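Researcher: Re-running this chain for the archive, since the previous output was lost when a drive failed. Same request as before.
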Amino acid sequence: MNKNLLYILTIVAALGFTSCDKYLDTTPDNRMELDSEEKVKELLTSAYPEFTYGLFCFAMSDNADDKGPGHQSMINNEQGYFWEEFSDVNQDSPAGYWDKCYSAISHANKALEFIESQKVGGEIPNSYLPYYGEALVIRAYCHFMLVNLWGNPYNPATAASDLGVPYVTEVETVVFKDYKRETVAKVYELIEKDLVEGLQYIDDSAYDVPKYHFNKAAANTFASRFYLYKGEWQKVVDYSTDALGSNASSYLRNLSGKYKNMGLNEQITEYTKSTEPANFMLTSNVTYWFYYFQAVLQYGYTSNVSEQGIKQKLFDNIFNLTGNNEWCQATASFGEGDDFILKWGYFFKRMDVNSDIGWYYAMTPKIVAEEALFNRIEANVMLKKYTEAEQDLDSYFEKRMTNYADENKVTEANITAAYQDDSNADSPLNPWYDFDDKQRTYLNCVIDTRRREFYYNGMRWFDIRRFNLKVVHKVKNGTPVILEANDARKALQIPVSAQQYGLQSNAR
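Model: Regenerated structure tokens:
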């Protein structure tokens, strides 16, 4: 399997490319003419960011480690690892993701403007309502991702003065327009307005494949994430429960069951199927961030026992795993030091039938059931509902290890033994809100377990930001580099192209 796969990739590895169309450089007239619900529906398929954040967020986080010279280099992987200013503007770069988010927002705004124009007696026709709701949630989501990459983490004490991002709600009628950065507080206010209004109109029956859109489960999970960052714990529980229903376990990815009985290729295929219950929302992205590059890039997953790599620190350190269990996140290898955790694959889209060049695409799970579950667990810890948190953790671990039995059950005793005064990170959890010692111990467990689950997804970076964690990156045969808890580089620098339009840069 590995040999054949490596051969295929060797042919096209140097050929995958894309160019980045700047959102603010797009001629407003070069857009689809809208005249029906079907045209709006079609437009919204392009209202999801075509690029993704996984590679550069992973590289900046404590999930990445230096494998040393002799492994493949990639500029966004390297600059992310050392928290340098990113120079690339294409796929897997911050500037590329910025542009594609605002491009998606542009499409959502175009749909919203047209739907508003179809009002009868001041009311939106019912046939348009699902797309109205989807467009609002897309707009909220894209701005949420932007502000949580280019603004400071939400903190009610500083949000009214912290710089966020422009919140764009109007269709562009000119190529060049002046924008200003709203405060983080204002961006969150506008996100909430769009999100709450849009949620009420989401209708899964409007789509042939709901999981390629903001369906009810995905939108509710996004809402739970939004309120998690705001610290509104009961809303987190409510929205997560709306996403998961009465039987959360039935939605979790069954690695200890169904996947355990599959071969590696079959697992990769299954991971991003719309029929996989765990996948609440899938997006197609131009990206190098799939299993081959996750394996071979220099700054990634390590498993060197003598150097206490990521495998030893994170995956061999599971507090309730015993000798009777096997952890079921499958791993594979492309060669010495190029090991990886098995997740999603890729497809290669040629420029035309006879072309040897084209783009790597990956269908990536952007919102999954496990996120809704972990959001609920974290919120329940903050509400001091420890029994509910333990029950959800049991549901999760049952799908991640074989032979789950009473001896593996999550209890206060085994959480305390493993996580009291130990976040398994480079510094203690330190969010803007307070918690007592028991909450801290439980949160150490929850956030560490969440880190393991979302390895490669890029979500660890957002936890590092909101918990004000320090990150230490080892340098092979060199001195470690450190990102302090309050380091200004945790807010990415505004892209140069956006600064040229007058947007204020972030402090350094």
